[in-house]
Design goal:
- Strands 1, 2, 3 and 4 form a four-stranded antiparallel beta sheet that branches.
- 11% of the residues are buried.
- The chain folds into two domains: 82 residues; 58 residues, no CATH class.
- The protein is α+β, with helices and mostly antiparallel strands and 179 residues long.
- Strand 2 and strand 3 form a beta hairpin.
């Protein structure tokens, strides 16, 4: 029987994280490397952990997972501090590596019957605190960044994001706009 935990471990083993173990990236972070941090947050996303207290509960309950990623123990407050310090270009590079690894498998897909491959663009907003984000001002009390995501529909059962472009909240998406 395959458990959810082992499926998540299999997913994590496919992530191209070899560059995240670089000593320069992990200088002064002996307890939690960037690779371990990313794996915890990917697991949290896949397993739908909704809050930092849930992180604590799940990590205490899943010692096999903790052993798999090489951590004896870690608190949610440490995770919160480390994720706030994480350089987002590291995650961007990881995203591009994953896309690059997908390319050879996606060429055989022809999209939807009678339509072909679709590239759907949608946007969601992330509200930011006004004190730190005057640059993202839209209206009083509404400072946001929009994340424009292009989703490739490679077949009725296979779809994945292949491009993400952030913008300020004032940018509008036009119908029929090419990306």
């Amino acid at each position: 029987m395959i458990t959810q935990k082992s499926v998540i471990s299999q997913c994590l083993s496919l992530l191209p994280t070899e560059g995240l173990a670089c000593p320069l990236l992990n200088y002064n972070n002996k307890k939690l490397s960037i690779e371990q941090l990313v794996k915890i947050f990917v697991t949290a996303q896949l397993d739908k952990w909704g809050s930092y207290p849930e992180f604590d509960t799940q990590m205490q309950a899943n010692q096999d997972f903790m052993n798999d990623i090489g951590i004896e123990s870690i608190s949610s407050s440490q995770l919160s501090r480390r994720i706030n310090e994480l350089d987002t270009t590291i995650l961007q590079t990881l995203f591009f590596k994953v896309l690059n690894n997908l390319k050879p498998y996606m060429h055989s897909f022809s999209g939807l019957p009678n339509i072909g491959k679709l590239h759907i663009v949608d946007a969601t907003h992330i509200k930011l605190p006004p004190v730190l984000s005057e640059w993202a001002y839209v209206t009083k009390g509404w400072n946001v960044v929009k994340m424009h995501t292009r989703l490739v529909v490679a077949s009725p059962d296979v779809y994945y994001p292949d491009k993400i472009v952030p913008s300020t909240g004032k940018l509008q998406i036009m119908k029929g706009e090419n990306s």
